[in-house]
Structure formats: structure tokens, C-alpha cells
Amino acid sequence: MDNSNHEKPSFKSRFKKFILKVVLGLIVLCLLLIWACSWTYSEGTRAGQLIKISKKGVILKTNEGELNIGGLRLGSANDGLEGNLWQFSVLDQNVLEKLEASEGKRVKLSYKERYKSMPWQGDTNYFILAVEAIVP
Q: How far is Cα 53 from Cα 49, in angstroms, rounded to an integer?
């Protein structure tokens, strides 16, 4: 039998294959993360007085708001009572304009809660879908 020489792959070719596998693995992980962050965890409505709308962020500017849903709760450090505030984020420009026009008024907000939000989407996992003014 003829023993043919099987050359061992060079370090350079093994390193290229390793780098390719790492890059492909990172791409797959990033796509899975983005897909998981698009899951809707819950949907619903909350009503209360719209306290503020602001654009926040150092590099990635996001639209954030607060809704006073009424009642009181203990402060996070048991330092007394504080208002029951609910923070949310806004992605849609039309919804943002309606919220800005309703600041200081009672509103009913339809929202969707994502499992996790990406940094460019907002500070919270709650995203407002629609705004309805509550007429007293």
C-alpha cells in the first residue's frame, strides 16, 4: 500500500477557519438577541395623568414619559410615600405628538411590553401604541 502524505493544515488556514466560526457565531447570537428583544411579553392599557415627555440619552436619544397612575407607594429606600409613577418609552412619532399635546391631562395609554428593549429603542420595556384622552 502506498502511504500518501496527508499534510496537516497550516496554522494560518486553521486560524482563518477559527475566526470565521467566531464571526458567524457572533452574527447568529446578535440575530437571536434582536429576535428575542422583539417578543411581546404583555399588552394592555394604563390610565392616569400624563406628567412628562422628554427626549433622553447621551448618544442614543429616546423618547421617555411618566404617567401618574394614582395612589401612593413606599419609596425605594423606605424614605416615605411617593406617587405611583409608571415610566414608558415612545417609538412612533405620531404617538409622541399626541402625548405632547396631552401633557398634564388624564389619558389612557395602550402599550406593549417587550421582553427586553434595545438601547436605541428606549429606557423601559413598555412602548406606547396609542393615546386616548379621558374626558371628565
A: 12
User: What is the reported pTM?
Assistant: 0.68
Domain spans in the chain, listed from the N-terminal domain onward? 40-133
Which fold, 40-133? OB fold (Dihydrolipoamide Acetyltransferase, E2P) (2.40.50)
pLDDT per position as a tens digit, 81-128 = 667 888 999 988 999 999 999 888 899 999 998 877 777 778 888 999
Best CA proximity match to 32, nearest among 115, 108, 127, 135? 115
Cell matching residue 106: 388624564
Q: Are 130 and 46 in contact (CB under 8 A)?
A: no
